[in-house]
Amino acid sequence: MDIHKNSLVYGAYTVFNVMVAKEVNDLVQEPYMDEPFHIPQAQAYCRGLYVLSVVLKKVFLFKCTLPVLRMNNLLLNLMLPPLISHCLALYRSDRPPRSLLQPTIESIAISAFPIAWFFSFLYYTELGSVFFVLATILAAGRGAHGWASLMGAISCTFRQTNIVWLAYAAAFGILQDMRRKRIRSQLSKDSSEPILYDPMALDASLSDIPKVLFSIPGILPWLVKVVWPYVVPVVGFASFIFWNGGIVLGRGQVKSRP
């Protein structure tokens, strides 16, 4: 059986990362940089990266040792190439790799971007934030808005400011759905299905603005159906801001101290 060259590169990337992780754990046996803040909280709280730690502990009976906690980000990093491959295929309207074990070379190179790659061997929230934001965009772009809403909500537990990326993913997903809707209408020549009037930018003129505005009411029922899954995390985020007194976790408690 022939082994795809991308699988070989991905395998080499995986082995190399595991070797680096082992070396880091051998040399840095105490919490490093911001890890003294994150690691103790992993024992007591379940939010963001800590949720993954609890899952690994409960499901796989892993202990919350420093190397095991750091392994959270290593696993996320190894899942980035397949995820990025599918995101690139979506943006370029290409076919994604046939197997998750055959990510593109480009996606592997992007996953090795120094800023993200460095945190693959420490117990930080960066990798989880990036991973779930990309998963949100991918799901939204494919029209799986329920999953996009869930992934976006999870991403906000890593970084509260990811609510902005959730809004981007929602807008991107809606535009992708409109594009597919227009293509289906053109192929089937079905004029009964309401679509947004959306002329090509090169052919558009000021006279098209009223046509665009008049076409909006017809798609409102469809638009509400697409948008509603995103309302839940947005309302949850707004509730968090109100309860917390700000976007930074614990801001209200800090301000209330004498």
UniProtKB/TrEMBL annotation:
Catalytic reaction equation(s): an alpha-D-Glc-(1->3)-alpha-D-Glc-(1->3)-alpha-D-Man-(1->2)-alpha-D-Man-(1->2)-alpha-D-Man-(1->3)-[alpha-D-Man-(1->2)-alpha-D-Man-(1->3)-[alpha-D-Man-(1->2)-alpha-D-Man-(1->6)]-alpha-D-Man-(1->6)]-beta-D-Man-(1->4)-beta-D-GlcNAc-(1->4)-alpha-D-GlcNAc-diphospho-di-trans,poly-cis-dolichol + a di-trans,poly-cis-dolichyl beta-D-glucosyl phosphate = a alpha-D-Glc-(1->2)-alpha-D-Glc-(1->3)-alpha-D-Glc-(1->3)-alpha-D-Man-(1->2)-alpha-D-Man-(1->2)-alpha-D-Man-(1->3)-[alpha-D-Man-(1->2)-alpha-D-Man-(1->3)-[alpha-D-Man-(1->2)-alpha-D-Man-(1->6)]-alpha-D-Man-(1->6)]-beta-D-Man-(1->4)-beta-D-GlcNAc-(1->4)-alpha-D-GlcNAc-diphospho-di-trans,poly-cis-dolichol + a di-trans,poly-cis-dolichyl phosphate + H(+)
Keywords: Endoplasmic reticulum, Glycosyltransferase, Membrane, Transferase, Transmembrane, Transmembrane helix
Family statement drawn from the similarity comment of this UniProt entry: Belongs to the ALG10 glucosyltransferase family.
GO MF terms held by the record: dolichyl pyrophosphate Glc2Man9GlcNAc2 alpha-1,2-glucosyltransferase activity
GO annotation terms (biological process): dolichol-linked oligosaccharide biosynthetic process
A GO CC term assigned to this protein in UniProt: endoplasmic reticulum membrane
Pathway: Protein modification; protein glycosylation
Location relative to the cell: Endoplasmic reticulum membrane
Superkingdom: Eukaryota
Protein EC: 2.4.1.256
Membrane-spanning parts: 130-150, 162-178, 227-249
Annotated signal peptide: none
Annotated function: Dol-P-Glc:Glc(2)Man(9)GlcNAc(2)-PP-Dol alpha-1,2-glucosyltransferase that operates in the biosynthetic pathway of dolichol-linked oligosaccharides, the glycan precursors employed in protein asparagine (N)-glycosylation. The assembly of dolichol-linked oligosaccharides begins on the cytosolic side of the endoplasmic reticulum membrane and finishes in its lumen. The sequential addition of sugars to dolichol pyrophosphate produces dolichol-linked oligosaccharides containing fourteen sugars, including two GlcNAcs, nine mannoses and three glucoses.
Protein name, per record: Dol-P-Glc:Glc(2)Man(9)GlcNAc(2)-PP-Dol alpha-1,2-glucosyltransferase
Membrane topology: Multi-pass membrane protein
